[in-house]
């Protein structure tokens, strides 16, 4: 295991520490180890573009994660009812997750493009007054990106929650039928609380995707119209490669890391607590 451990320490942990260290330096086009303290961080939080991108990320995360969990649970319930062609439905619903965000973004950009997609198709059928140009609207462009992201991420949530549903003890279903509890109420009030680990895993996976979201935005809107779909990852990449401000980019990347830690830490603590609790019960 020594080579693997060394690789992880050098490439991943080393790269992480290097990025954090650069965020406190005067690095511009190339790394410059002149220490400037919190100057880059002050510029970061004083930058209107960063504030907008971070707010967009929060809105994106809340709606995206909530939408994936809701639709994923609905699909998992439907498949859990032992429908015919179950394997086919699982494959179809999971297929979008097999696509890259670049491909997903390109497809949805074509579909939502007023000159190429749904709007033009309906207008060509004769409904010339039909309009569906949310991707070109400053107010709704972000939700167009969220729509594509939900289409991409719902399948993996469905698989995780379906695995949890298949692990529910059959005696619970028998007890609810004896008590006359409607099946929908059983899924909502009895089964859902038992899927805590699956839901937590889904939130962590989706949350990490929210923070690093870049290629989907680039493929669909390029951050526009204006700054309507700006996200932190795009801000970091622009400052790193286009604006030659490595120090500011490293500050943004470190802030993204802190966000991921804030998402993952409660889940990891909960897992640790569960293990300790399990050991205590066994003892």
Automatic annotation (TrEMBL):
A Pfam family matched by this chain, by name? BPD_transp_1
- Which Gene Ontology cellular component annotation is one that this UniProt entry carries? plasma membrane
Checking SUPFAM superfamilies in the record gives: MetI-like (SSF161098)
Q: Which UniProt keywords apply?
A: Cell membrane, Membrane, Plasmid, Transmembrane, Transmembrane helix, Transport
Entry's InterPro entries?
A: ABC_transporter_permease (IPR051393), MetI-like (IPR000515), MetI-like_sf (IPR035906)
Q: How does it sit in the membrane?
A: Multi-pass membrane protein
Q: Using the UniProt record, give the first listed, main subcellular location.
A: membrane
Q: Which residues cross the membrane?
A: 51-79, 91-111, 140-165, 186-211, 246-270
Q: Where in the cell is it found?
A: Cell membrane
Q: PANTHER family annotated for this entry?
A: ABC TRANSPORTER PERMEASE PROTEIN
The entry sums up its family as follows: Belongs to the binding-protein-dependent transport system permease family.
> What's the protein name?
Sugar ABC transporter permease
